[in-house]
Amino acid sequence: MILVLVFATCNMYANVNLLPSLGDGVAENIFQDVIITGTITDKNGAPLPGANVLAKGTSVGVVSNFDGDYTIKVPDGVTTLVVSFIGFADQEININGRTEINITLLESAEGLNEVVVTALGIKRSKRSLAYSITKIDGDDFTETRETNIANGLAGKVAGVSVTKPASGPGGASRVIIRGNSSLTGNNQPLYVVDGIPIDNTNRGTAGEWGGSDGGDGIGNLNPDDIETMSVLKGNSAAALYGSLASNGVILITTKKGKTNQGLQVEINSNYVFEEAINHLDPQTEYGHGLLGQKPTTQTEAWDAGEFSWGAKLDGSSVIQFDGVSRPYSYSGDNFDKFYRTGSTFTNTIALSGGAERLGYRFSASNMENESVMPNSGMKRQTFSMNMHGSALDDKLSFQTSAQYIFQNVRNRPQLADSPYNAHYSVWQLPVTINVLDLRGDPDRLGANPEDATDLYGSTMGQKGYELLPTSSIWFQNPYWAAYQQTNNIGKNRILASASLQYEINDWAYVKARGGVDQFDRITEDVFPTGTGHNLTGGMNQGQLKYKQSNFDVMVGSSHEFDNGIAYDFLAGANKMRLQENGTYAYGNNFALPFFYSIANGINNGGSSSFAKLGSHSVYGQAEISYKNWLFLTGSARNDWFSVLDGRDIFYPSVGVSAVLSDVLKLPEAINYAKVRTSWAQVGGVGDINAYSLNQTYSLGRAQLGIPRGAITSGSVRNANLNPLLVTELELGFNLQFFNNRLGVDFSYYDKKTEDDILSAGISYTSGYSSTIVNIGELSNKGVELLLTGTPVMTDNFKWDVSFNMGYNKSEVVSLVDPENDEERFNIGLSRARHAWVTHIEGMPFGQITGSVYLRDSNGEIALDANGLPQVDTDAGTVAFGTGVHPFNAGLQNSFRYKDWRLSFLIDMRDGAVGHSGTNQQLYRRGVHKNTLVGRETGIGGRPASEIRNYYTKIFNDIAEEFIYDAGFIKLRELSLGYNVPSKFLEKTFIRKASISAVGRNLWLIHSNVDNIDPESSYNAGNAQGLDFFAMPQSTSFGFNVNLTF
């Protein structure tokens, strides 16, 4: 509606020429053999090679080159150029005496007949599709870039929710399409690169007791190598992938060289700064201490080092944890002192070109990141190759691509629980303690610069051991956590694919394609000597070797008959094999302090793991069309799974689309109208691993020479387990108005998951505690809307706008534990252990649940005899709302004036709640501003000196206090760019040049929570909505330079 109103007021200016027309007499004197040059692009600025430029009224014309550039010699008397390109609306351009004219073409209604890449790499006409598909150009990921390209989808695709956990460099991304399809299994989409499925497992995540984000697979890819990314949202779109596609599919096509093109060199450099966003707003009126008193001895200061329950700040000299007396006053913002300015520097060089029947592209890229977290960062080097060509009079064609990726992440920050989590300590320090005073030994940051055994004890206080700001060994020195507790993850990855296609005749072909995703992942964690809670230290090392291979063979046929009926048929088979081998070693209690080696551990050992699984599949798809306006499509796939003892499942789909504007007389304003509907089933095996249905045992130490074995799993195997099944109905329409100046794309879907795979409790009399069964049922219903428009377009100025939104209503339909018949299922627990993420029958996915205040008849908090708030035990565990945003929207605007461009993206989410463990801890420590209440007067008749007990009671027992509305509005992206005009490059070897200033996460426009970012999260799993001292979100700004030679 917003765009319609804009058009109602702006359409009258749509084709206005800003320069006045010249009379015929003037034109006769000017237009004599005038040479005009320029560039022809689409609305996204991509060049259009092969566009026709004609001097109107003559036969003089030229064709734009690979870069969209053209040069035409205009005959005497011609005042207009006519520009045309297949799939785009023709334009007539008044010359008006100009010698350089850059032209932007818009898609025509026929442009919706363009060929798009769909499931299995099948190329289909866009107008024939009975489902929703969204294509994003690679440029959207390279200008305002993220180190993980999946995060670049945020706010850009209707029905797609993107969560970026605050987990540091190389962290994973959570992408959900049309809601969660499984209650406990993987809900992220399948990623396919150049036709080959890739691994996207998040190998390491933080939970209730801490941990770090091990990263995912999609985060390894180089954005500069991506040509397009297509999001297949519905089951019908993804059904040909069968069991892999229950959560949707994201197709990634990498850049290729062009045939008949000379050598082209492209260089892209991107440099951005990062700053941690400081939402922390602590109370600055009271300092460290207990019972409202300042510490008077070093021991008292050490015992109170983590608490801000001291006296009011007065500037007097007060002893601190290290025995030094300092002013009892606000020491400054510890947040800004601890976090640093981060940076990411990316350089990519690409060589491309081709001969008559061969195209090639080679690229090399280097990315170096320094995190806002001290002593943390990552490096990634990528080398890629892509070749395609043909032979035998174009009957035989081939395509091959390969990428080698090396990625190293050093010191991924620890998240959630306190051990090794620097954020936990920095955020809770009393305002009288300067975090810089915790640096300690400059040669060993965070360590005691000298012996302090008289305070800490004979062992703990040694020089070089952790400098503790408090007597609690779990409240770690943040510099020790950042610089001494180290970890490293290195990954060597190869992605490769090759295909060969032979055209049997004009209507039939056969194709074979194979590919592999293979990597080695090496990890090391060092727990240093002298750590407060682990004085003797230890370390872990591990190596994981992974390989997934896919091989497809297909046969296809297509033909159009004279009566307007046409068909397109495909049949094929797939073989998938996956293998993992892991080796792990540990060494604890170092014999020699500060010498970090597995062999130096007094207690050491190791383990290994092995898994091998596979599947066989057959599939087919057929499309019948009538006069290119009515389309009927059906597909089917059958999968056989090794993990289910060879059991199989069949996935059908059917869809109908009709381009009504081709056969009905519609109002003049509507130039394109299409309706579509589809129904499909897909499924999967959830998180079932290679041996979930096999009874396994472990070997123990031999006794009297006889090896011992034991069944150590508490879960009994279920030989009757079946794949889960996801059924979806989709309805939609596409409309284009005002000669494609306004577009509407609407979808409604109804998706139901049955036989979800869950772990359920069983009677202990069986000898086991649980089994895996098909008991879950989940529903997702929603709408998606995409509005696109060009309110203003003149020769020199153009304004494009798009608005997308998605609303998903989820419901846990069935969730019955066969042992206790409970209609609840906990999937996550907060660190304070009084708030959960829970599935509840009849309610939306992933409810945040917990305890609430007992209140009197007036709604006031009821206090007990000790003046402390009480829990409403009768209410039990209350559901506060879902931790998953049901509403997601994005508003994108792009402006072009001559060679300048400006764009911005606003990201909006609503409908979810969260539980802030961060604010909960700030209550406990006396850092939160709300804890100022009662400092002087007390609460509930109790003296002010006991105020800590009041807020500690809330910390311990009341989840309600820390529930927040997780909705927000953010300025997600902003860029200002300039394309250097070709006339300035004529005497150089540079063919094209552009520069842009870019920024991400620049403004939190609206938020409902204090001290944290509303997106704060420490993992990418299903238990969303829990916050506990994750990395702060960051804002980035920098520059991007692109040169073509």
TrEMBL record:
The keyword Endoplasmic reticulum does not apply. Its main location: membrane. Residues 126-249 form the TonB-dependent receptor plug domain. GO terms for cellular component: cell outer membrane. Pfam families: CarbopepD_reg_2 (PF13715), Plug (PF07715). SUPFAM superfamilies: Carboxypeptidase regulatory domain-like, Porins. It is a multi-pass membrane protein. The keyword Transport applies. It is found in: Cell outer membrane. Keywords: Cell outer membrane, Membrane, Transmembrane, Transmembrane beta strand, Transport. NCBIfam families: OMP_RagA_SusC, SusC_RagA_signa. Belongs to the TonB-dependent receptor family. This is SusC/RagA family TonB-linked outer membrane protein. It comes from Hwangdonia lutea.
